[in-house]
Input
Amino acid sequence: MIKDRLINAKTYYGISEKLKKGFEWLKNTDLENIKDGRYYIDNDNIYANVQSYDTKADAAFEGHRRYIDIQYMIKGVEKIGITNYDNCSVKTPYSEENDIEFLNCMKNRGEFLLREGDFAVFFPQDAHQPSLNPEKQINVKKVIVKVST
Output
């Protein structure tokens, strides 16, 4: 997992050309005025889901196998839980169609705040629990860039 500010994204360009394209899309898109929905950056290889929602008191941990997530906070702040995939057991089996499985993760869990201008990159080994209330429920706007592995 990586957590940083979008202004520092260039630091991570060397990881992969696809991640670089995802970061470049974030940097060159008018995110303040973008509407919720799906945006294709490189067909199914790289695409973005823009979402507005209310944070919640609890959420399931999730994992992905086919895509890396770049989660970027456009507006608001949310708490995200994090642990290694190996610390979890399967709650809902993996859906190949949706590239997601829901997990029970009881040990070695951490958490952090994702604030406006922050991004977090979650790799397949990173079980994550997004959309949690920072202190109380608030409305956020976030984009998740999905980058194929």
